[in-house]
Specification:
The complex is a heterodimer of chains A (127) and B (138). By secondary structure, chain A is mainly alpha-helical. Chain A has one domain. In chain A, 50% of the residues lie in helices and 5% in strands. Chain A has three helices and two strands. The longest helix of chain A is centred in the C-terminal third of the chain and has 34 residues, at 92-125. Chain A is elongated and about 65 Å long. Chain B is α+β, with helices and mostly antiparallel strands and 138 residues long. Chain B has one domain. Chain B is built from two helices and four strands, in the order H-E-E-E-E-H. Chain B has a two-stranded antiparallel ribbon. The longest helix of chain B is centred in the C-terminal third of the chain and has 33 residues, at 101-133. The radius of gyration of chain B is 22 Å and the shape is elongated. Classes of the chains: A mainly alpha (127), B alpha+beta (138). The A-B interface holds A 17, 19-20, 22-27, 29-35, 37, 40, 42, 47, 72-75, 92, 96, 99-100, 103, 106-107, 110, 113-114, 117 and B 1-3, 5-6, 9-10, 12-13, 16-17, 20, 49-51, 56, 58-65, 110, 113-114, 117-118, 120-121, 124-125, 127-128, 131-132, 135-136, 138.
């Protein structure tokens, strides 16, 4: 697909999903001391696959990555490494690591978007 | 914008942790308050946290925290024989507060840590929002 027809490609969708995941992880961290709270998370891979469709191959030598569409439940419960006595499944270390990871990937996506915008601008100016 | 709800969620947690901190401070302040009956003596308080689910759809989930109540601990107050004390009852006994100072110190440290984590989350969210606002400029 041409860069001018769809300038942001898959990144626009990824950007939105990263944003939603930030909220989910923030909710988990906020509820670290709430009894019976169950940590949740987004299955990013399957959501991305369900929303943007499976990756297509357009050359006979490309491998198919076998996208099945994924199942529809996009927000799932996290399995804790060790369950707490009060029924809370938030583990601060895990959540913090995932939050940082998500923030980093968000920054990466924003960098991709920035370079896409720059690319389009260069193409339009024709300098 | 979803990012703003992340800020709201973190701030709800910070408010809840602040209530916990205040409760702990009150408990430690009243550590040596004695009474002539068990009911009069100070009893340690503890906040009850619960989740407020703001949004739960197929691919969106937002849950904050709030304090739904303050619970009194049921641990019995220790009785001491202190006939010279002005609050002593007819038999010469006073009742100590049932605050466990070690427990309160742990509670205080936990509240501080949780508060800090939420501040960090808020800062990270702010950075991400700023990056979004700067999109296409750099």
């Amino acid at each position: 697909m041409s860069i001018l027809q769809n300038p942001f490609g898959v990144h626009a969708q990824a950007f939105q999903l990263r944003e939603q995941r930030t909220t989910i992880l923030a909710s988990n961290i906020a509820n670290v001391d709430t009894p019976h709270y169950k940590a949740r998370d987004m299955d990013f891979k399957s959501v991305m696959r369900a929303t943007s469709g499976p990756m297509r191959t357009n050359h006979r030598q490309h491998f198919s990555v076998g996208g099945t569409g994924g199942d529809q439940a996009t927000i799932k419960y996290r399995l804790p490494h060790s369950a707490a006595l009060d029924g809370n499944t938030v583990e601060v270390g895990t959540e913090n690591a995932l939050f940082t990871d998500n923030a980093m990937r968000y920054q990466a996506t924003s960098t991709f978007l920035n370079s896409r915008i720059r690319g389009v601008m260069t193409a339009l100016r024709g300098e | 914008m979803t990012m703003l709800s992340a800020m709201k969620i973190s701030s709800s947690a910070m408010t809840a942790q602040m209530v916990r901190m205040n409760t702990t401070a009150s408990n430690l302040a009243n550590l040596d308050v004695k009474g002539s009956t068990e009911e009069e003596a100070y009893k340690a308080k503890k906040p009850i946290f619960s989740t407020i689910i703001e949004k739960f759809t197929e691919n969106d989930y937002q849950a904050g925290v709030r304090v739904t109540g303050i619970q009194q601990t049921t641990r019995p107050n220790i009785r001491l024989y202190e006939p010279q004390s002005p609050v002593a009852n007819e038999e010469g006994y006073v009742f100590q507060s049932n605050v466990n100072s070690i427990e309160e110190m742990v509670e205080m440290t936990n509240a501080t840590r949780s508060y800090q984590t939420n501040v960090e989350v808020m800062n990270a969210t702010k950075k991400m929002m700023m990056a979004t606002l700067q999109l296409g400029k750099g």
